[in-house]
Amino acid sequence: MIKSLSMILMCLSLAVPAFALDGHEMLKKVDRNLNPESYEMYRKLINIEPDGSKKEFVMYSVKKGKDKIASVFLSPASEKGRSTLRIGENMWLYIPNVGKPIRITSLQSVTGGVFNNSDIMRVDYSAEYNCEKVEPTDDGHILYLKAKTNTVAYDRVKMWVYGKILLPDRLECFASSGMLIKTIYFKTVKDFGGGVVRPAVIETDSPLYKDYKSIIMFAKVKAKDLPDEVFSLNYMPKVESLR
Amino acid sequence: MFFTRFSQFYCCDRKKYALFLLWWLLVCPAISLHGHAGAEEQTSDTLNLDFEIPEVEKKPYEFKAELEISETVKGLDEDSLLFHQKYPNGADDGTLYQTDLNLKVEGSYRVNIVKLYAGLKGNLYYNKAEGWENDRRTEEAYVSLQPGPSIALDVGKKVLKWGKGYAWNPVAFFSRPKYIEDPDATLEGYYVATGDLIKSMGGQLKTIALTPVILPVSKHVNDEWSTEREIVWGSKIYFFTFDTDLDVMFLLGEEVYDRFGFDFSKNLSPNFEVHGEAAVVLDYVKYIADQGGNLIEEKDDVLNFLFGMRYLTKSDTTFIFEYYGNGQGYTKDEMTDYFTLIEDGYQEYISSGSMAKLATSRKYGSQVYNKQTVMRDYFYLKVTQKEPLDILYFTPSMACIYNINDKSASITPQITYTPITNLELDLKATFLLGKDYTEYGQKLNDYKIYASVKYYF
Prior knowledge:
The structure holds two protein chains of two kinds. By secondary structure, chain A is of the alpha+beta class. Chain A has three helices and 13 strands. Helix content of chain A is 17%, strand content 47%. In chain A, strands 6-5-4-3-2-1-13-12-11-10-9-8-7 form a 13-stranded antiparallel beta sheet. The longest helix of chain A has 33 residues, at 2-34. Chain B has a domain at 149-304. Chain B has an 18-stranded antiparallel beta barrel. The longest helix of chain B is centred in the N-terminal third of the chain and has 35 residues, at 2-36. The chains are: A alpha+beta, B alpha+beta.
């Protein structure tokens, strides 16, 4: 009897971390499916107001490793030359007229609209979140993610992934109070070449911004070798020279 | 005093004032309506998802410009000492108006590792005293060599902004002073040779970067620095470690004050940042005017420092708070002596017609005393609320500079509105508050209203 109980307990104790590992591995796979570890991309960000009027921004971005991303605005003219840098949870904004980088937070938004800085300067989900639970659905899984630290923009994220290759379909982002902050939808899967097949559009809405929508369109996502020095404050005014 | 002056201004010039405000207020809704015209329901399903984003095509040249039209109204404080200093016979008009048309043009051209950049600014303005005048300057013009991401060399006229402070930067050794009423305003650079050497690493010290600077001084180049021909040099070393930005810097020269400093910036939490700066200026010579108009020299090492924070609330209110210790500044007694010199000079002019003392005070004023934040200790507070009452792209703010030594203050409420892409509307008013013989109580004007429309293209 004791032997049987010991065996059951042993199996259970092994099963829990194995399941958690699966979730984490799935999350890492989602990250790699969304983009190579080191890459460049162009994005058009569109903020749509309740009356339908919109504001558009075009950005060039480079990312390396799990938690380093730098971007520069190419348009509109009022934003041109502004660059952003993120290393882990540290974020900076460089405005040419101001002439030096200033620290910004993940909760603010350099573009306004529903996407905050954390969404615009997105690093790997596995760098910020642990997968606590995986729940199967008809066409995929739901990953229940919990922020690794309290400096992450969303305390919990519910991620719907689908298909064998594990691409995200939808995210629900929650505050520590349990309140839904926003929902992010991944749409229009596109082959960018070089083995990068991922959603080319992400769209978000939020109960906090009723009737507002923000959309990011991706273009020319491709792997690129980047030196670490690109991700430094001194390099922020020069990010555009990487194009 | 302010309210008296304001009511005088309002009564005498209410037509101009009303027209001025009407102009600005009409522009807002007109542009806002334009932005909303033709709007229709759009989502990613109805938008044209054109993946050939035109801006991705890289060109060797870049160009951008901003055009600004602004109107400034200044209400003179006819009882203030600086008014008596400038207008001993009184002014024809108690309110000054100025219309400005500013054009800033920036362009760059890149060939392989070489980039040429120039930023030019032109200003055409009109006021009653001067009529139409113009002013133009090259803010920056330099050649940049970028052989690789870890190395860069820039030669030419360039702005180098060092420091982490918002309102003041005691460690900005190679910059012109910030304009305290608009700390984000562009500055004119100096002719320098500078560069960056960047090294990124694993471990806790993630980045180290060296920025050496050589600044030549002669009769024709950087002549504000010294009357002698010399080479001023310095350097900044940046460290990014333990999620903290740290800089250590120095400046050395023959005829300029040697300076050493450091700064830091760190997020204690995602919405709470702290920063600080400190600089020691060696053998600084401070010129102090006594009540008789004699100039006394005091030579000593001085410490200038700043400590500040930025805090963002859940409701998108940003607080920027800074304390500035200006070791080069004047004490309350020293400023009282200067104000007494003006007062005595004015009384002497009234009684005898002699301008001697008043002229002496004007000379000292233009060289040192009448500049911004010349005393010892200041607080700065700016509160910005993003898009209150769900009014999109509308940002009101309130900034306050408080002189701790004489308890005078400057308060600036401001609203910024960007109803459509590339267009920015700005309206702000500055009110100066203070008793007799205080910095802000004795300024030339006791309020200023500024409205502008800026277009980027």
